[in-house]
Amino acid sequence: MFPMVTGFINYGQQTVRAARYIGQGFLITLSHANRLPVTIQYPYEKLITSERFRGRIHFEFDKCIACEVCVRVCPIDLPVVDWKLETNIRKKTIA
Fold first, then answer.
1. Cα–Cα distance measured from residue 63 to residue 70, given in angstroms and rounded to the nearest whole number
2. pLDDT digits over 20-71, tens only?
3. What stretch of H or E contains 19?
4. Which of 48, 73, 49, 90 is nearest to 81 (CA)?
5. Would you give the DSSP letter of residue 2?
6. Which ranges carry the 4Fe-4S ferredoxin-type domain (predicted)?
């Protein structure tokens, strides 16, 4: 064949291959567009944990300042912090 004809055939094959790749990328984009969002807006929406959730809160008794954050974040309201207010030093202490 003539070199010009083989160049056109090669160009046509490359064009078809490029169109196929663009079509595949477009189909992937469309499949992702139909999915529900995974992100939750944390302060406004809370993630609902299952009843069998076995995660645990990291707690160091020596560093505890009785702020009761662990009580607020625990999904099953497990920890109880007993503290008393020392008025002379204006500090909470663990009872």
1. 13
2. 999 999 999 999 888 887 888 887 887 777 777 766 666 677 777 778 777 7
3. helix 3-33
4. 73
5. -
6. 55-84
| Amino acid code (one letter) for 10 | N
Cα separation, 67 vs 86, in Å, equals 14
Cβ-based neighbours of 92, under 8 Å, separated by 6 or more: 65, 66, 83, 84, 85, 86
Distance between CA atoms of residues 25 and 6, nearest Å:
29
d(C-alpha 91, C-alpha 62), whole Å: 15
For 82, the 3-state DSSP assignment is coil
What pLDDT, in 10s, does the model give residues 75-91?
666 666 777 777 777 67
Integer Cα distance of 95 and 82 in angstroms: 5
Residue type, 22: I
Q: What is the pLDDT of residue 7?
A: 79
